[in-house]
Amino acid sequence: MQSKQISIRLNFAKDLTKDAGHKALSYFKSINDLIIHQKNIQDFVSNADLEVEKYIRSCISKKFPNDAIVGEEHDNLDGSSGYTWVIDPIDGTTNFLTEIPSWCVVLACVHEDETKLGVIYEPCHDELFWGSLNNGAFLNDTPINVSKSDSLSIGSTGVGMNSRTASDMTVSFIKELIERGGIFYRNASGALMLSYVASGRLIGYAEPHMNAWDCLAGQLLIKEAGGVIETQSAEDMLLNGGRVIASGPGIFDELLKIANETYIPS
């Protein structure tokens, strides 16, 4: 049974993520007015990211002043309640900045070393993916389930990459996937691809390293939708990030095998 504290935070998170998504969408519709900076290779930030995260942080601090906050674009905020909010104001910023309607707002909440709730909102298509630990996963108001595929050759696998890990790991992973009859899919938003795994659109997802704000919400949704994820400490993910392998139960072992063989630092 869901605790009252989680229930209150989940309802709050659903409303807040949609509100933040609508704010981000207003920036998206005025893309030429944005101020853009490059943080790293293929890693950008705009005033839209900064302002949306500031808005989310402000709302959390007003409602739950003792909760901690971890976000992509601003410094961490310590708390005393044991609850930690994890924010990605715009996941898929490159898409956002090039007017590709494939980006999302991500919010998760960690308590006692577990992700207790996750919400991912894709404003361009008004899709709200949400769920909480042991209480299922949903797309808007409809329960979702992972793919029943039992072969990498039946369905598409999301593949993530980033500038923090060697590109040859991803190249090797894709090569092995294709040789097994698989097809890889990438839309430059890891959180959105994880949502697609949870809803059965993709059969699985793999990336050698993700930051907590990109993956904790999506991993929870996949687990709650009947999928399999690697067992990880949420607190460790907050500090260091980590590898993400997730899928429906029918292909997880094979996906994990490929990752173990290819995600090896050179």
Give the total of domains: 2
In percent, how much strand structure appears in the residues? 25-35%
The CATH homologous superfamily of the largest domain is named Fructose-1,6-Bisphosphatase, subunit A, domain 1
Q: Tell me the overall shape.
A: globular
Question: So what's the CATH class of the largest domain?
Answer: Alpha Beta
Structural class determined from secondary elements:
alpha+beta
Q: Roughly how many Å apart are the termini?
A: 46 Å
Arrangement of strands in the largest sheet = 3-4-5-6-7-8-9
Order of helices and strands: HEEHEEHEEEEEEHEHEHEHEH
- Total strand count, please? 14
Integer-rounded radius of gyration: 17 Å
Low-pLDDT runs of 5+ residues are none
Main sheet makeup: 7 strands, mixed
At CATH level 2, the architecture of the largest domain is: 2-Layer Sandwich
**Roughly how much helix do the residues carry, as a percent range?**
25-40%
Question: How many helices in DSSP terms?
Answer: 8
Q: What is the third-level CATH name, the topology of the largest domain?
A: Fructose-1,6-Bisphosphatase, Chain A, domain 1
Mean pLDDT: 92
Would you give an account of this structure?
The chain is α+β, with helices and mostly antiparallel strands and 266 residues long. The protein folds into two domains: 4-143, Fructose-1,6-Bisphosphatase, subunit A, domain 1 (Fructose-1,6-Bisphosphatase, Chain A, domain 1, 2-Layer Sandwich), CATH 3.30.540; 156-262, D-Maltodextrin-Binding Protein, domain 2 (3-Layer(aba) Sandwich). It has eight helices and 14 strands. The strands form three sheets. Strands 3-4-5-6-7-8-9 form a seven-stranded mixed β-sheet, sandwiched between helices. The chain has a five-stranded mixed β-sheet with strand order 11-10-12-14-13, sandwiched between helices. β5 (104-111) and β6 form a beta hairpin. α5 (190-198) packs parallel to α6 (212-224). The longest helix is centred in the first third of the chain and has 25 residues, at 4-28. It starts with a helix and ends with a helix. The mean pLDDT is 92.
